[in-house]
Amino acid sequence: MRYPLFLLPLLCIFSACDPNSSELVSISGVTIGTNYSIKLVSVGNMVNKEKRQHDIEQILADINLSISTYIPDSELSKLNQNK
Q1: Contact 66, 59 (CB under 8 A)
Q2: Distance between start and end Cα atoms, the chain
Q3: With CB atoms 3.0 to 4.6 Å apart as the test, which of 36, 42, 68, 81 could cross-link to 47 if both were Cys?
Q4: Cα(52)–Cα(40) distance, rounded to whole angstroms?
């Protein structure tokens, strides 16, 4: 359902009054030579920020091990070394 734009502030106000309303959780860090920032919507207290950050950093580390040209035993480096 689409709401007219002038109703958006009212929807935000009413949802903020609800104790079960959603919360924006920010997770950020440094990896692969750059910064990352991720925002998650948590309903109630459903998001464990520390676990999510660990999971995200593990995924990014796995990606780095696949495509890094600076890690000698990454998948991409091994492919490039193959004759």
Answers
A1: no
A2: 57
A3: 42
A4: 10
77 residue type, one letter: S
The residue to which tokens 């796995």 are assigned: 62
Which tokens hold the place of 76? 């991409």
Rg of the chain over Cα atoms, rounded to whole angstroms, equals 20
- pTM, 2 dp: 0.62
Residue entry with tokens 């990896």: 31
The 3-state DSSP class for residue 45 equals: coil
**How far is the C-alpha of 69 from the C-alpha of 83, rounded, in Å?**
16
Low-confidence stretches of the chain (pLDDT < 70) are 1-21, 44-45
H or E segment and range at residue 36: strand 34-43
Q: Residue type for 55, please?
A: D
Pick left, alpha or beta for residue 79 (phi over 0 → left; psi -120 to 50 → alpha; otherwise beta). alpha
